[in-house]
Structures are given as structure tokens and as C-alpha cells.
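PROTOCOL LOG
Step 1. Enter all chains and additional molecules of the complex.
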Amino acid sequence: MRFKTRNFDTSSVALSTEDLSVHLPDTPGQPQVLKQIDVTIRQGETVCLVGESGSGKSVTSLAIMGLLPEALKVTEGRINLQDRDLLPLSRAQMRELRAARIAMIFQEPMTALNPVLRVGGQIMEVMELHTQLPAAERRARAISIMEQVHLPDVERVFRSYPHQLSGGQRQRIMIAMALVLEPVLLIADEPTTALDVTTQQQILSLIEELQANHGTAVLFITHDMGVVAEIADTVYVMKHGEIVEHGPVEHVLRQPQADYTRDLLASVPSLSPRPARPEGDEIVLKVEALNKIYGGGGILKKLPQTHAAKEVSFTLTRGRTLGIVGESGSGKSTVARCIMRLIDPTSGRIMLDGQDIAGLSRNALRPHRKKLQVVFQDPMRSLNPRWTIAESLIEGPLNYGTPRSEAMAEAARMLTVVGLPENALKRYPHQFSGGQRQRIAIARAVMMRPDVLVADEAVSALDVSVQAQVLKLLEQLQDELGIAIVFITHDLRVAAQICDEVIVMQRGAVVEHGTAAEVLVSPAHAYTRSLIEAAPGRMWDFQNFKEMPEVTHANPS
Amino acid sequence: MLGYILRRILAVIPVMLLVAVFVFLLLRLTPGDPAAIIAGDMATPAQLERIREAMGLNQPLHVQFFTWVGQLLRGDLGTSLISSTPVAGMIADRMGPTLAIALLTILMSVALAIPMGVIAAWKHRSGADYAVMTFSVLGFSVPVFVIGYVFILLFSLKLGWFPVQGYTPISEGLVAFLKNAFLPALTLTTIYVALIARMTRANMLEVLGEDYIRTARAKGAPEHRVLFRHALRNAAVPILTVIGTGFALLIGGVVVTETVFNIPGIGRLTVDAILARDYPVIQAMILLTSFLYVLVNLIIDLSYTFFDPRIRY
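Step 2. Run joint prediction.
Step 3. Record the structure below.
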């Protein structure tokens, strides 16, 4: 692992915060959201602010931008941009600085651009707001910065609307918009979290390239230790609104001082796969030559077809976990939805406990639904907000004729199994954290005593420490109840930790299939290798604070 | 896009045909003999027979229907039973006032309601927001004739700014027209401002929470630009729907307002026709209102593409 070891002692300070404190003045008790934050970023330096959700890293960035939500107030401290304190500035003065001196890019490129305006116009708007440049010059500069962020076919993209571009392209537009006026500081708030690993790698190296060309200081906010290892010069670790540790990246990763940093690093799932459990002889799910084709309809002319799943086949025995990995659009979720019959496969067989359910009607399917349960990605949206936890948990069993009292008793027992207090039954989803909600979602699925559990990106929205707990819970349930799990994920680290077997999908087709160890340690297919190589921080063993042991590829091609 | 417009226009045909069937059956399904209804209680059998002959009631039903539709397509909406004048002419005479007041009402409503809704959303939960919401509830719940009479009392009788009643067409001068049309339009505006402002506020509130609004602010855009350039266009589609349906309702004629201000509009024509059982007029009015509804909805649907590039047909 090669960490950045650039020295910035002689560079001028781009931004520093001193004793920056933020409160919620209108909330009883006036809780403090940020506590005396001191951060220094020098010209050309990349500072990573890491922490879990709620640690205050986004609040810090919004405070610097002067864009805190109305409920939050800076109560103390200074924010110096090149030695000029920003806090006393008027709204109009702050507006002039934004995008011109401090620019920001956000996590969700899908929603961060205005959907009804052309992207070229959105880039030019920055110049309209801050410069007197004539229209032709604005256009020329917009085109130039779009070329610098390596967008293809710039003239066409310039005239496009956001929905016509991919996630990676939209993030490039955001970066172009942020850097067109060559700001002193770029704040990047989780800019690659919503992107595929290969796209992430491209965006990270793009930011690095532009930083080198323009000497921009970068404040990079992330929860991903892998990304930190790749790009940071200096790391600040945040917890509950405080900086618990900071230092050069290698120092923090090799010799973390604070207990919290050690815990955080220890929860990063390792890329080295755990050994596979033995294959059982009771086959619970067997998928044969599954195909799903979208489109092709149309009355006047035939619409283009999308082959979302091509000839997918696999077998799953009781108590084992099969991972399906791939990037967005690879077809992994299509396969999951076909198995659950949330969508109808175009052809192929889905044998659940020896019965083909691929062609069953909705009614004929009903008895089989019970055996096949699902946990979705976003626990914030997968529980009905107006139902108590108890109602959500017992609905399934009631549908299958379990008496209410029996179902309630089982719900209470299930909650303790997933590690929640029994009084959670009468409460509503919004009273729980994301991790707790995901436990509830798992409890809901397991209440049905399924043979197969489909987990669709079930831990992707969770912090690493919570992620580790939920993965452990799944494993424990699996051991106790012998559930087979189909685990859909884009995260190779998670796949390495939970899967016995892994399928790699690309554009609807399975390109590689084997045990987790085979696929992740000695990948045979070029696509699998590119995925592994794009995984940030793959050369570093975070849990043990040292380099990964040298891996020899068994079958290099 | 062109293909879509064509398809939508073609789709108007079956809808209107269905309406025509209903309208046609309206007269035929009314209990009793249409000729007897038309001729009145004192008619002799000979008179009845003459009317049947004249209306073609002796012919089979489908022949009657197609004859009637043929007449409609030639612009012949029949003859009023009461005044014995062509219905098409009667409607044309009454359309002017109704259309003029409808347009004025919508223009004033949009001009007032959109800024009100935007400000209410921008200053969410402030005094301004509560003021707009209170106005909305009032404008919607106070009966329109009460508002009309209060306006007459205040602006016409006390202040003497406007005439109490009556209508002057635009052809006799814009000022004269506005003098008469302003109060009825203002009366109707209270309802439509309430409706459109509420819709604007609700949709703006949603849009202002979106990520791209944060992006606009991060670019250093001033608030008015954030609101009107970035947010409003994204909130436009549902607001547009309300405006369009509102306009269609207004063209259908607003009986109460027309009565209060003594305006010779479509609304009163319809009510008079219903009270007098003037069937040809009633039929023509149903056809016309349905057609206007279909037309306005078509225009609204097509205008969506102008506001939101993601909507493509």
C-alpha cells in the first residue's frame, strides 16, 4: 500500500477552522452538534474527514459553506478562508464566495443537478452569477472544463438534461461546475458513495488530477476507510461532533491512537474471504437458465429490448449463502426480483424446495411465498411508517392463518433474537436508528420461517460498525434456523465476509461462479479482476493496521 | 412528439362520440314522448304528429342518431324550443362574456397565487405562510355570492369605483370592459387564488427540500433565483394541472357570479335552458362543455413537456 506522503508545511493555509461549535438553539437543552472543531487544510492538500452517520462531518462542511439548515447555529469559533474569517460576513458576501472561492460537490449525483435545466446551462450559471464574462466566453469556458473532467462528446453532453447522463457523468458535471472558477477549496461530501467501484475509482483519480493541475485544497468527507487510504494526505476522525484523532494518513491507519479509531478500522470488512462452509445435500433453491427481457413491445414499431438477465443458473443448499455481486445495471437485482417473483421471468425454472415457481399464477404462488422472504436495502423506507413494529412483524404470519396471540408471542421472541428490547413492539419505525430498523426488517422476514432469505443490498446503507453487527446477526440466524441466503451486494468486502459462494454478474450475464475464495482471491474473469482492483484500499488490512499479505494469483491469464 | 399529439387528437373522437351518444339518449330516454315534452300539455294529436315528423322521431333510432350527428358536424346545433332561434348563435352570443371573465380571472389568480405560494413555501411556518394559508381557507370556504355582494357593497356602493352590475364587451373599449368585468373576475379570483396558492405552496415545499436546490445555493445563487429559476419550474406540473382544470370549469359558466353581476354568460344560458326544458340548448351545452374539458386537458398534457424535459411522449 502506497500512502500519500506529500509534505505541505511550506504551503499556505487554504482553510482553517478554530474552535468551531454548532448548536441547535431551539431544541430543549440546546444540544451541541459540533464541539470545538479545529481543521487545517493547506493549498494542494487532501484532508479526509471520516466518521459514521451523525458524527457531524456534513455539518462541518455546511458550516464552512454557510449553508447550515436554519435550526443550526454557529455559536463559537472562526472559519478562516485564507486568513479571512467567514462567520461575520453578510449573506450577500457569502454568496459571492460560494462556487468562486469554496465549491462543493455532493453525494447523490442523481439528484444534485436540476432535472429541468440543461447541464451546460447549469455550468454556465456559475459564471453568470460570479463573473462579467460575455456569453460566448462563458460557453467556451464551460466546454473547456467539461473536457478537463473527461466527459465524452462534450458538445452533446453540454445540451443534455441530467436524466440523459449516467451517474458518473453527472458527478463529472458537478465537479466541472465546482471547479470552473478555480476555487481555493473544494468540499466533496461523499462524492463517490453512490457510484459503482470502477466509476468511483475514475472520479477519485479525476479529483486528484484536477487538484494537481489547479492546486486546489480538498476537504473530502467520507465514511469509507478504503477511500481514505487511497486519497488522503491527512485524516481527521470525527465522532459525536468531536475530532477524536487526526494525523497523516499512514500514521492514523498504522498506529491509531483513539479507541474509536481502532474500533472503526476494525469494523472495516476484510477483502480476504472467510472459508466456505461445506455444501449440504438438501437443495432449497435451484435456478435454471433464468432469463428476463424487458421491452420489445410497442404497437407501431418494436421497442428496443433489454436482456436484464441471461441464462442465469445456480444451486443453493440449506444453510449456505450465495452472493451475487456486480455493478449497477448488471442484473443482480433483476435476478433477485425474479426469484421472489416480484417480477415475472421471461423463461427458465426457479425450483423452490423441488417445486418450479417460475410460471405459477399469483394465487398458486401464495403458499410458496412464505418460504421465500426478503430484506431490502433501505430500512428507512421498507417498514410502513404508520404501523407499529408489532403490526409489521405479525402481518405475514396472520396472512397464513397463525392466531394473533401466537403471532404476537413469536414477534416478541423474534425481537429479542435480533437484539431489540421487547417494548419495541408498540413503537413506530421512526423511533429507531437505521441499524435497528434493519434488524426489525430481518425479524419480519425470519418470522415467516423461510427456507430462503433474499437480502438485496441489505447492509449497504449502514455504517461499518452497524454493518458488522447485522452481518453477524444474519450468520447467527442462519446457524440456528438453517436458512439459505441469497445476498445481493455491490460491495466485495461484504461479499467476502458473508458468502460461501459468489456469482459475478455483468450486463445480465454470469461471468464467474465459484466459492468466495476462488472468485475473490484468484479471479478468472477480467471483469472480476477489474472490480477487485477498483476496490479502494484493497492492499491494506485495516483490522490489523498493516499491509495485506501478498496474494499470489493462482491462475493468471 | 408529433405522433403523440396526433394520437391524442384522434383519441378525442371516441370520447366525443360517447358524449354524443349520451346527449342523444338524454332526450330519448326521458320518460314520455319527446314530442309531447316539446309540444307541451295542450297539444293536439295532429300537432304531436307534425312535431314527430319534423324531428324525424318516426325513423329508427340509429338513423335519427346519425342524422343528428351529421347536423352537429355541419355546425347545426338545432333550434331553441323557446326562442326558435338557432342554438349555435345563442351560445356564440353568450360565449364572449364568459370567456373574457374566465381569462381575466385566471390571469389575476395566477399573478397573485404563484408569488403567494412561493413566498409561503420559502418562509415556511412564518407569519407570511400562515397569512397565505388563512386566506386560502377563507377564499375557499366563503360562498362566492357572499364575496360578490360584499365586493359590490364595498367597491360599487361605498366607493363607487365600479358599476354595480352589467357587462360591456371588449369591442366597446378595454376600460369600459374592465370596469364591468373586474369585480366579477375578482370575486372568482378569491377561489382560484386559494386553490392555486395552496398547490404552489405544497409543491414548492417539496421541491425546496431537493438536493439540486442545495446545489443552486452552493453555487452562490441569490434566493429569488433559487426560488423562481430552480424551484418553480420543477414544481410547475401539478400547479399547471390545477390552473387548467380551473379554467375549464370557468368556461363551463359560473352561474352564481353571472347572476350576482347580471352578466349574460354561458352559465345563465344553461340554467335558463334547464328550467325551461329547452332540450336542444341543454344538449349543445353538454357537448360544448365536454369538448372544452377534453381540449383543455390535452393542452395541459402537452404543456408538461415544456416544463419538464423528462416527460417525453
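Step 4. Note key features.
Chain A has 20 helices and 22 strands.
The longest helix of chain A spans residues 197-214.
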